[in-house]
Prior knowledge:
The protein has helices at 16-26, 35-41, 88-95, 101-113, 119-128, 134-143, 151-162, 207-222, 231-235, 238-251, 263-266; strands at 32-33, 52-56, 66-70, 77-80, 83-86, 169-175, 181-189, 194-198, 225-229. Helix content is 40%, strand content 17%. The mean pLDDT is 91.
Amino acid sequence: MLFRGVYVSRETPITVHLLGQAALLAVEAGSHLSHHTAAQLWGAVVPDDPSVHVSSRRSRAQRPGIAAHRVKAGQHVVTRRGLRLTSPGQTFLDLAHLLNLVDLVVLGDSLVKANRLSPADLVTLAADHRGPHSKLARRAAGLVRSGVDSAMETRLRLLMIFGGLPEPEVDHRVHAADGSLLYRFDLCYLPWRLLVEYDGRHHAADDQWHSDIARDEQFDSWGLRKIVVVAGDIYRTPANTLTRIRHAMREQGMPVPPLSNEWRRHFPSRSDDLAEPA
C-alpha cells in the first residue's frame, strides 16, 4: 500500500514518479503535483520531505503521506511523463512560501543545472510574482547562477556574498588548444589568481585525488592560490571559513571589503567556530 486504497506489487521499485502517480489516484480528480515533489521530478535539489505534495482546487484534506495544498490563481501546470505538475518556474515561486533564502537559491541553481530554465527566466518570473513571499522569490532569483555544480557550491558562494565579499566568478573553464577541457574552477577571482573550491569527498583514496595533487602543483607553478572548503567549514565554522578566504585575498593583493553580518542569519556557527571573522 502506497496510500490508502492505492497498491502496487511488492516487487515494484518505489520512485518519486511512482509515488506521484499513486498520490494523484488518492486525491480528487484534476489535482497536480507541486512543491517539493514537483522539484524532485524536475531533477532539482530541495530539502528532504517524506510527503508527496499535491495541489487541489477544493480539498485540502490531509492524508497520511500526502501534503495537501490549495491551487493558486494563475498557477502554471504542465504534463510531463504522464503526470500533471507545476512548471519549473512555478515550482520555484511556490517553494518561496516554504524554503529559506539559501535553500531557494540552491533550488534555483539546480533547476538551471538541469536545463529547466535560465537565471534570467527566474528573474522575470519573480519580478511579476505577487504575494507575501514575493520579495524572497525576487532576492533568491537574483542570486541564481549558471554553471553551479552542486548545492554545497551554492552554499559556499552565498556564505561569501552574505559575508560582504565580492561575488566570485562561477564555473570558469580552461581549455587546451584543441578545445578539450583542462580545468574547471568552482569559484574564482582570476585577476588576483585566487581559487575557492568545495570538496565533497569523504576520503582521498581514489585516482581523482592523485590527479588533483598534480593539478594543484601546476597551479602553484602559475602562482594560483587555492582555498579548499569542506562541509564542516560551511555548517560548523563559517566564521573561520570567511577568515581563511579573507586572509588569502590579502595575500594575493586583493582589496578586502568590511564584513557584513548578514551571513549570521543563514550560516549559524557552532561552538568550535571563531567568535568573529578576522
